[in-house]
Amino acid sequence: DIQIRELYRNTDAYADKEVLIRGWVRTNRSSNKFGFIELNDGSFFKSVQIVYEQDGIENFDKIAKAPIAAALMVRGTLVRTPEAKQPFEIKAKEVVIEAGADADYPLQKKRHSLEFLREIAHLRPRSNTFSAVFRVRSLVAYAIHQFFQEQNFVYVHTPIVTGSDCEGAGEMFRITTLDMENPPRTEDGKIDYSQDFFGKETSLTVSGQLEAETFALAFRNVYTFGPTFRAENSNTARHASEFWMIEPEVAFADLTDNMDLAEAMIKYIIHYVLENAPEEMEFFNSFVDKGLIDRLTNIISNDFARISYTEAVDLLLQSGKEFQYPVEWGIDLQTEHERYITEEIFKKPVFVTDYPKEIKAFYMRLNDDNKTVAACDLLVPGVGEIIGGSQREERYDVLVARMKELGLKEEDYWWYMDLRKYGGVKHAGYGLGFERIIMYVTGMGNIRDVLPFPRTPKTAEF
Ligand code: 4AD
Ligand code: MG
């Protein structure tokens, strides 16, 4: 059989020829002489119109009753219909019902709200919007691998189960084999994790960065692409408890190299989807986010802005705008600030660098001012932060001092400290939130609608 995507893209090659397709009924209406079925096979968010006639197929009465969601095999002739809405249709010669469907199928022909579709995450891939979203998600994953592989980066699989908290934010999902209703305790009353399966306290990873650093100091250029988990209770449209992250890590690189790589990667991804998913992008442009394609096209051909945190704070103060969360040097930038900077001031992606050390993680390289660290966040219009990165602290003594300040125990990070002892050259990396880049290129406004099975506080149905 042939994919519907192929029929749309190469219609000329199939005109007036016999084709065989398989898919599911989206709609079916008929009179007593002929009928129309919209058939979708998932290869494309658009369906194909099947025309069947009393005189053309032997089981007309049965096909006329084929319900929505039934699976069909259709053999017929592709006929161009230049004057109609669809560029072609298929005149059926044979239609076989391969699977029926119950009448209470929830996805009827009308437009459903995204909220309703979230409740049926197992069926929503069958709707046009989610067909387009998840195909683009797949393509972007491929583009990212291609971007790094073309430059000889090594793909590293970092652990999902880990004994260290990379971000130091305490937002880890614990995993344990201990009976937590009645856990074994040490003499001083603490839970005795030495009796746990792993012999210590472990969690799901919040980031593969620390492990990626070990590989960067062997391979120079590496990247991870895997699931990460955060038990942050922020019920926003941009946070999920389980999300995917891409974390390149590059030895002999500084903060500027890091931003150059991130900018090239974002442009590569955008270029790739515009090139390889033109129909899906057209769909988002028409139905999800008007002007999306123009905006994305502009991004490829212009430099991203780069400003320091201190400059960002000045710009926010000078704006005279009343923010819900007041601005002063030292605050962590909130979504409203991030969006103001990218949407109102620059109207394009902006790197913000050199944040106060107090609001960033222990591994970031301390700047000469002793107040800020060599961090870079990438903020984009519509979404806010999509990348967080930094140059890493490669100086053993400075790192130790920083960890002391934060109450981190050196012995817990002994392997990480070793990297600073043996050829610990300067290095840098960043984390791209995979769902955030999907939101950015599709215009979808909620992270729950770009994750196949979103995990957010109080939701893990599947
Ligand atoms: O800024 P974050 O926390 O940085 C790190 O984890 C570093 N270890 C990355 C590195 O330098 N290798 O997270 C990186 C990105 C964010 O910019 C955001 O896009 C995404 O991950 N992210 C989330 N996406 C969805 N839901 C959440 N709860 C997210 N938390 C972070
Ligand atoms: Mg961040």
The amount of beta strand, in percent, is 15-25%
Overall shape: elongated
Unique bound compounds: 4-amino-1,4-dioxobutan-2-aminium adenosine-5'-monophosphate, magnesium ion
Number of strands: 16
Distance between the termini: 32 Å
Number of contiguous helices = 14
If strands are numbered along the chain, what order do they take across the biggest sheet?
6-10-11-16-15-14-13-12
String of helices and strands: HHEEEHEEHHEEEEHEEHHHEHHEEEHHEH
Please outline the major beta sheet: 8 strands, mixed
Structural class designation = alpha+beta
Mind telling me the C-alpha Rg?
27 Å
Overall mean pLDDT: 95
Helix percent reads 25-40%
Low-confidence stretches: none
Short description:
This is Asparagine--tRNA ligase. Residues 134-452 form the Aminoacyl-transfer RNA synthetases class-II family profile domain. With 462 residues, this protein is an alpha+beta fold.
Task: Output the keywords.
462 residues, alpha+beta, binds 4-amino-1,4-dioxobutan-2-aminium adenosine-5'-monophosphate, binds magnesium ion, elongated, eight-stranded mixed β-sheet, 16 strands
